[in-house]
Design brief:
Shape: globular
Low-confidence stretches: none
Number of domains: 1
CATH architecture: 3-Layer(aba) Sandwich
Strand content: 25-35%
Order of helices and strands: EEHEHEEH
Radius of gyration: 12 Å
Length: about 80
């Protein structure tokens, strides 16, 4: 885990903040990562992102150009690193 920068795409809507995105952000910061954070601020943004990436959920985390996945995947990635 030599690259200590992570890209995080997470949903923050006017009426809902995804708790899994908050958890992913906290895990990354706790592990010492600098964040390149992208907020998906509308349902349209969320759906477009999911279509573009071929994923079913947010958040999505990328480290070193590699998609790690969601917050559960990130937890496993950090435990193995």
């Amino acid at each position: 885990m030599s690259d200590k920068t992570a890209t995080l795409y997470r949903m923050v809507l006017p009426d809902h903040t995804c708790p899994f995105g908050v958890r992913a952000k906290e895990m990354l910061e706790g592990a010492g990562f600098a964040l390149d954070e992208h907020i998906l601020a509308s349902r349209e943004d969320v759906e477009a992102f999911k279509r573009e990436q071929g994923v079913d959920t947010t958040p999505q985390i990328f480290i070193g150009g590699e998609r790690i996945g969601g917050s559960d995947d990130l937890r496993q990635y950090l435990a193995e690193a």
